[in-house]
Write a structure and sequence with these properties.
With 273 residues, this protein is an alpha+beta fold. The chain has helices at residues 114-127, 154-168, 195-198, 240-272; strands at 48-52, 60-66, 69-80, 92-99, 139-149, 178-185, 188-191, 215-223, 228-237. The protein starts with 47 loop residues before the first strand and ends with a helix.
Length: 273
């Protein structure tokens, strides 16, 4: 019988490529001492690193790290509309959100999927109220955000990175936009959740009948100086009272993040000059 010499035969024993897969086992959200699995308390954010001017050919750019969540943003413009576009007294803002193909455990596609298109709309909705669009009529500003590694809270990192890149580009703004994500599970509220905490986790010993009714993920965009919420995305089931309580607490945390953004901008200006 002829043998196909061009075929590469696989091993007899194979293993799933997702070696970090949970395999359906229940996972603990907290350790015995009350801290989360990564050592943080429930209301503690991950270590954060920010830098401006990382893309030389862009008008403005920024890079942000939140532990293992990494995002980069580039801003181009203001530049004129196309010749076929109608005149507009206000400028236009365009946003594009994209996961890198290697950023998640499961490889992402080259083209935008439904989740990325939804995040692009949230970016546009959250950043537009902060930009002085009347300052550049018949012009547009393009914002491109790419997540290089996703370990949870990717949308909040993209919103914060986009606001920092707009400031680096010299775009006039009413206020900086700072975002944070919250995972609410039963009576626990986890600030800046990781990817494993964002998924539907059930503590050890929890049966199907005892599963809590309120389990959701909330991402809030906040403008501290104006005390406004330009954007919010909620997934899961959360009551109105719980959502209001979480929003009031996260506004204080966003004010702390705004101080970090302002300090980073001042340091970048000092080094550049």
């Amino acid at each position: 019988m002829p043998v196909d010499r061009m075929r590469i035969c696989g091993p007899e024993e194979t293993r799933h490529p997702l070696v970090l897969e949970l395999c359906g086992r229940p996972v603990r959200l907290f350790q015995d001492d009350g801290t989360r699995l990564d050592g943080r308390s429930a209301d503690q954010i991950r270590p954060m690193f920010m830098k401006c001017g990382v893309i030389s050919h862009a008008q403005g750019s920024a890079y942000i790290e939140m532990d293992r969540t990494k995002a980069i943003c580039a801003v181009y413009g203001p530049r004129e509309f196309g010749k076929r576009e109608d005149f507009s007294i206000k400028g236009r803002l365009t946003c594009e959100f994209k996961f890198a193909t290697f950023s998640c455990k499961i490889r992402r596609q080259q083209q935008q999927d439904a989740e990325e298109k939804e995040f692009s709309q949230i970016l546009l909705q959250s950043l537009s109220p902060a930009v002085c669009l009347h300052k550049f009529p018949k012009a547009q500003v393009d914002i491109y955000v790419m997540v290089l590694e996703n370990d949870g809270s990717a949308l909040s990192a993209a919103l914060t990175c986009g606001s920092l890149a707009l400031a680096d580009a010299g775009i006039e703004m009413y206020d900086m936009v700072v975002a944070c994500s919250v995972k609410h599970y039963c009576k626990s509220t986890l600030m800046d959740p990781s990817a494993s905490e964002e998924s539907e986790l059930e503590p050890e010993g929890t049966s199907t009948e005892e599963k809590p009714a309120e389990t959701g993920l909330l991402t809030v965009a906040y403008m501290p100086s104006l005390n406004q919420l330009p954007g919010m995305l909620q997934t899961g089931e959360m009551s109105i009272a719980t959502t209001k309580q979480v929003n009031s607490k996260r506004a204080v945390d966003c004010c702390v993040l705004r101080v970090l953004l302002k300090r980073n901008l001042l340091q970048f200006i000092a080094v550049s000059s």
